[in-house]
Design goal:
alpha/beta, eight-stranded parallel barrel, binds 1-O-alpha-D-glucopyranosyl-D-fructose, binds calcium ion
Amino acid sequence: MEKKWWHDKVAYQIYPKSFCDSNGDGIGDIPGIISRLDYLKDLGVDIVWLSPCYPSPLADQGYDISDYYGIDPRFGTMEDMDRLIAEAKKRDMYILMDLVVNHCSDEHEWFQKACEDPDGKYGNFFYLRRKEEGKLPTNWRSYFGGSVWEDLPGTDRQYLHVFHKKQPDLNWENPELREEVYKNINWWLKKGLAGFRIDAIMNIKKAFPFHDYAPDREDGLCSVREMLAEAEGIGEFLGEMRDRTFQKYDAFSVGEVFLERQEELPDFIGEKGYFSSMFDFSETIFGKSGKGWYDAGVITPEDYKNCCFEAQERVGENGLLSNIIENHDEPRGVSYYIPQGDCCEESKKMLAALYFMLRGIPFIYQGQELGMENVPFSSIEEVDDISSLDEYQVALEAGLTAEEALKVIARYSRDNARTPMQWSDAAHAGFTTGTPWLRVNPNYSTINAAAEQKDPDSVFHFYKKLIALRKDPAYRETVVYGALEPYLKEQRNLMAYYRRGEKTLLVMGNFQREEQEVALPAACKRVLLNNYPDADIQDLTIRMQGYQVVILEM
Ligand code: TEU
Ligand code: CA
């Protein structure tokens, strides 16, 4: 595998709105991020991905961009952004922005011009269809609910939006649109950006001609995924984008890729792939149902293990996945993957080590390093996210009571991860001196950065140790490039795997509250990391405590 500068890095996702507010308006901002770069450096982070901070009406919290060349005044100025890039460079850190080019905002100039003249240049930047009374162009349901078709204001047309109606899809079939996208990417890379996380990218290729699919809910619509599954030829767009942009700058690109086909993996993340890496979402989508969140199944430790191993096996030596336990679209990993009632310091550290040591590039989502948890929602009024509000309605329509529906939302809501970062036990967790835009998780008095930095046994320090191990010259080659091989895969609630490179490491987690005895394949040379004070190893047996995790050098 040809070595690349990003292979051995550790990445961190910032959700700017909720990270650090520097001016007391209750909204996180870029000066706030700059003020915390030393915190990230101390943790060991190299690459920082910012969720969108471009000008936006924030209908979908910035994933609806109205100007690709600007910074939303709520987040700061372009000077702030330049300063962030420069300050990161000083610390050998890299900044990624979010590339949201499946759609823009309906407040983007292109869309405004398309409304003025749907037959002109900008009409062809979107998917427009002539409106027919009483009939939609197709019966596809958008990700956020309702039809994907909406009237184009002031015209006799309708436009396509696979997400919210304030997020019109861009027409990638149009070379002029593609040129605009590449121009924008290069403009940012020239500024010194290290690369991009690429949003919702599998949606850019549609299946033609547009047609209906069998309805999958009472509303007579069908998931837009049906159409996407039929789309052919996305590689032409992705390859062109790589050649015209990322490749020229040796930029890092990580794709939000769903629904890829097995045989296409080398094209996606192989040596000359479209992207440097792509996220592994196999555990986040496990158990999800086409009917809605209310119908999703619980993920058990065995399921979690199998998802991780299957993804690793699928990718093999083809490239590096980017591994996560959460992001801004998911509940908190510790609340989701650890069985209910068992979320504690030990289990949080176990989950951390199990995912972090997988082959690939580890991504940490803000607050994950503190063990931040889901929010105890007491009313739907507390929920801001459009996707959660839609899923609440879907659950009610399916016959759940308001109380049951709220429980569903509390488990899956994207707002779980969007509450303000917990910096200290000061008011509003030290996130803002004003009123935070979204309520702070009440557990901030115990779960916060200041307290955990002081406590050498904290989740924070455990993450620091994991990062330090990945960077330790003695182990780096093995942790970054070593092959992954499951160990005792059939042993229930044990997730164990080798990393084999220059060294041989064995990562073992007892994914349950009860103790369990595990056979060792050979004597271990040393215990590199342990979330308990001791490891009870006798001959070729290790007696593991509840949620104990160890990393052994064999
Ligand atoms: O998410 C794309 C995505 O595929 C969705 O499935 C998303 O995970 C789901 O709606 C969650 O309920 C990306 C962004 O990460 C997300 O925040 C945006 O809302 C979306 O694209 C539209 O830009
Ligand atoms: Ca602010």
